[in-house]
């Protein structure tokens, strides 16, 4: 069972109450958000699908992220997170999509985009996609990924509460 089981159960219950299917678009977590949700029996009534788009090519092919966005802003950016979430929504039966793209480390960081930086996107049918930036202090790869899953689930709950 996922260390995020309680949060995942709350997300599933909130989506079910609102009659929403959910899709994930994950880069730095490699499917961990979808796994946290689908660890729970009965999640198939809410979880439509998960896109693991680790490469830029996958982001473009599977989610419709534009090469212009990736060239201008990079994979780890608000713009890419937004396009990932919107693309997951458009390419699924879901009414809600969450995306994550970041630098999990231990390498790959820079002054502008340090290890621990993650951009989150949330798209809800009929609303403008929203993004959220977080830089995790614990820059251990596993900690960044686990904290990203937790934060994504919390952001979904917050968005559904509005």
From TrEMBL:
Domain spans labelled CinA C-terminal: 6-158
Alphabetized UniProt keyword annotations: Hydrolase
SUPFAM superfamilies, A to Z: CinA-like
Keyword Ribonucleoprotein: no
Organism: Nitratireductor arenosus
Record-linked InterPro entries: CinA-like_C, CinA_C
Coiled-coil stretches noted in the UniProt entry, renumbered to this chain: none
NCBIfam families: PncC_domain (TIGR00199)
Lineage: Bacteria, Pseudomonadati, Pseudomonadota, Alphaproteobacteria, Hyphomicrobiales
Origin superkingdom: Bacteria
Pfam families (alphabetical): CinA
Keyword Transport (UniProt): no
GO molecular function terms listed in the Swiss-Prot or TrEMBL record: hydrolase activity
Protein name (record): Nicotinamide-nucleotide amidohydrolase family protein
